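=== How it folds ===
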Amino acid sequence: MSVGAAPAPALVAEARDTTQRVARTFALACRLLPRGVREDVYLLYLVFRTLDDLVDDARPEAEGRVAAVEAWACGRVGARTREVQVLETLTARHPLPRAALADFCEGMRWDLEARAFATEAEVDAYCYRVAGTVGIVMAAVLGTADDARARPAASALGMAMQRTNILRDLDEDRAAGRVYLAREAVDRFGPPLPGAREGLLRDQIRRADVLYEQGLAGIGLLRSGRGAVRAAAWMYREILRQIEREGYGARAGRAAVARRRKLWVAARRGLDA
């Protein structure tokens, strides 16, 4: 794939299929995107998802693939991996913020190091790197009327979704030996054990909701895809409401929102002007 060339149809199909397979809520929202940017959003998601999966699975090539994107983002010579080729193609059409992509790679390194977090500020720093950056880059693809205001909002929305992931996956992560909660929160409320974590979850949900409000306030600054982003935000936020409905983790397992409920939320809240 040469710089600026159209991506191969097979790659676009893989990007779309990957989104629909592993990010069902996001895939539902993507259907609302204008056709002119939908494929580019799928491709960008493929880049982020590929690196994240390589890191999560501790694949031997993870470090090198992250390093290649980091080198490209920092303007250094590096390996021309598939992720770099996709980014080269996208940057010919959109002003991709390379600093955000470099920060994302730093977040991947934190995951490779299995970094623990002592404070909520450190959790926020992590959430910015692995998800706030995604929001910033996605906003660049969709276009913004005012980057100075839109970027913090896009970052906040990504961070809110990452904090939602942390709460949704508490038991799964604990079983795998991973902890993404701040030690100060666990010291205050106790470990996140089923049936004994309502106080902790109430506190963490409140923090996520604050970020959602900041993110939603900036959606109107997007030039395109406002309905899709708003729908994605409200559908993802519904995971927090599902955690509440299920008794704040009274039982072990992942809180899941039924597809019919997601669509109802998207129609009721996500498509509001």
Summary: The longest helix spans residues 120-142. The domain at 9-270 is CATH 1.10.600.10 (Farnesyl Diphosphate Synthase).
